[in-house]
Amino acid sequence: MKNMHTLMLAASALLCINLAQAQTTAPAEDAAPAPAVSADAQATTTDPLVQKRQADSDAKAEYKAKKKTAKANMKVEKAEAKSDMKEQKREATEARDKAMATDPIPK
């Protein structure tokens, strides 16, 4: 049991030392930033996970574009249908008013 306590104490001390070093290490000011990876470089990778992630991203973008187009078309069709309905309603109202004007009111 004493050996277990000694091992735990040593492991804890090493962990604290590593954490302290990680906090005090400052990045070099004259170090060059990492270059950005272009989309072409990601597309030519042989890693299947990266390829799948890129394919999923492309499919999602295509889906969103199709959805946006379909929504815009639906709005146009809805506006046209609404204007047609209003026109039909106006014509029906005019026809009813004419019919009521020519027919005498029964007493």
Description of the structure:
- With 107 residues, the protein is an all-alpha fold.
- It has a domain at 69-106.
- It contains 3 helices and no strands.
- The N and C termini lie far apart (112 Å).
Sheet of most strands:
none
Taken as a percent bin, the fraction of beta residues is under 5%
Total DSSP E strands: 0
Residue share in helix: over 70%
**Which runs of at least 5 residues are low in confidence (pLDDT < 50)?**
none
Average predicted local confidence, pLDDT:
81
Distance between the termini: 112 Å
How many individual helices? 3
Biased composition (Basic and acidic residues): 53-64, 74-107
Region (Disordered): 23-107
Biased composition (Low complexity): 23-45
Keywords: Signal
Keywords:
107 residues; mainly alpha; 3 helices
What's a quick, concise take on this entry?
This protein has helices at residues 2-24, 39-43, 48-102. With 107 residues, it is an all-alpha fold. The mean pLDDT is 81.
How is the secondary structure organized here?
Blueprint: H1 2-24, H2 39-43, H3 48-102
